[in-house]
């Protein structure tokens, strides 16, 4: 061992002859190797453990929310079952299980008649009418789009609008306009949507 590293060997050689150094150096180097490779082997496992713990915490939060929703739905079902017959009928009339066009037309005519107005036109957008015997697994809120024109005095037409607020059917008014035909009556035009379950 000559050359530039020879002098280091001469410093290390007496140390290596020491029995304590020989015994414990292999032990120390083995421990260092175990720790070094253990860190690289354990690190991905620890990352996975922490990631899974985070996922478990998120899943527990979702489970808590779903449990709360389930409790709320059960409470809503119990409240629905505890309703009296008159309330159930009013609820069914408010949001029927089909388009119920005949009932809608009747309610619109009654509203116009009670407020001294007359219907000059009523038009519905095409809808798909199903028979009542079909069972639908998923219930969606659908809409019947309609346009109605009523004639009458200004006060009568305002009363019609007030009556539509307490209409027995759930409706949404898209546009409302008042027009005066030259030499003719005042015309109230309403574009709206009547909602139903399908």
Describe this structure as you would to a colleague:
By secondary structure, the protein is of the alpha+beta class. It has two domains: 6-63, no CATH class; 94-197, Ribosomal protein S6/Translation elongation factor EF1B (Alpha-Beta Plaits), CATH 3.30.70.60. 56% of the residues lie in helices and 21% in strands. The protein contains five helices and four strands. It has helices at residues 6-17, 19-81, 85-94, 101-114, 154-165; strands at 118-124, 141-152, 171-180, 186-197. It has a four-stranded antiparallel sheet with strand order 1-2-4-3. A hairpin with a 5-residue loop joins β3 and β4 (186-197). The model has no long low-confidence stretch (mean pLDDT 86).
CATH superfamily of the largest domain: Ribosomal protein S6/Translation elongation factor EF1B
Sheet/helix structural class: alpha+beta
Annotation field: number of helices = 5
Query: Within the CATH hierarchy, at the fold level, what is the topology of the largest domain?
Result: Alpha-Beta Plaits
Overall pLDDT confidence:
86
- Largest sheet, spatial ordering of strands: 1-2-4-3
The portion of residues forming beta strands comes to: 15-25%
